[in-house]
Amino acid sequence: MLDVQIMAEAFPNLLQGVGLTGKLAILILLFGMLVAIPLAYARNAQSAWLHGPASAYIFVIRGIPSLLQVFLVYYGLGQFDFVRSSALWPIFRDPFWCVIIALGLNSAAYTAEIIAGALRLVPKGLNEAARALGLSWFQTQRKITIPLAVRLALPAYENEIILTVKATSLASTITLLDLTGAARLEVSNTFAPYEVFLTAGAIYFCITTSLSWLLRKLEQRLSIENRAVAQKARELQVGAAAHA
Predict the structure, then answer these.
(1) Dihedral (C-alpha) 232, 234, 239, 244: value to the nearest 10 degrees?
(2) Is the Cβ–Cβ distance between 173 and 67 less than 8 Å?
(3) CA 241 → CA 27, 131, 156, 229, distances in Å?
(4) Closest CA to 57 of 106, 22, 97, 18
(5) How far apart are CA 235 and CA 49, in angstroms?
(6) Which residues contact residue 99 at a Cβ distance below 8 angstroms, ignoring those fewer than 6 apart?
(7) How do residues 199-223 score in pLDDT, each as one tens digit?
(8) Beta-carbon neighbour count of residue 117 at 10 Å?
(9) Rounded to two decimals, what is the model's pTM?
């Protein structure tokens, strides 16, 4: 029978791991986004010197399990003498930062593909109209391409955010006491894996459901703003045609 008392007693102990789970998810997404933006532009570049390595990185990283990537960073890099003697060794010997690096690079591959696809969906006529009006490449990206691409990429990026939150559970495999790590510790104390992991699953469900609701609200708000951006884009095309 399901022991509700064990679940109630385990609940506050599991909540202690939620903070680390949230911190990991935020830092992984930020690091992944910083890597993904230039990677996405390289992915869409016409130059083979940019397109080739970016495509290869995305293809390889997406083909390797996330858990294996965590192990490669945490256990693998320490095997090299030049890593242990470098200034980066304090980072690579810390499981917290190893998870950020491994899962951040993994997230970057998926996010880059999302952004690259969104950039390709932005009508080329808008860029041509911007050049006709004398806007630089950076001005075009900042005022036209990126705002439209963000709105196009958001639905797919919502899934990446949810998957990243759940992927933080891999941190428990290298000694970190996130939500899953706290659950494993509680199981060793109570010998009640069913009740404890069911409670942890319920907490994960509440977190991901709340995130999905917030992201849907953001998407609805951006869809309203997207119509305003589209109107400005049409005005830009009209102005470029008149200028020509």
Answers:
(1) 150
(2) yes
(3) 45, 12, 34, 18
(4) 106
(5) 36
(6) 24, 28, 70, 74, 168, 170, 171, 174, 176
(7) 999 999 999 999 999 988 887 777 7
(8) 16
(9) 0.88
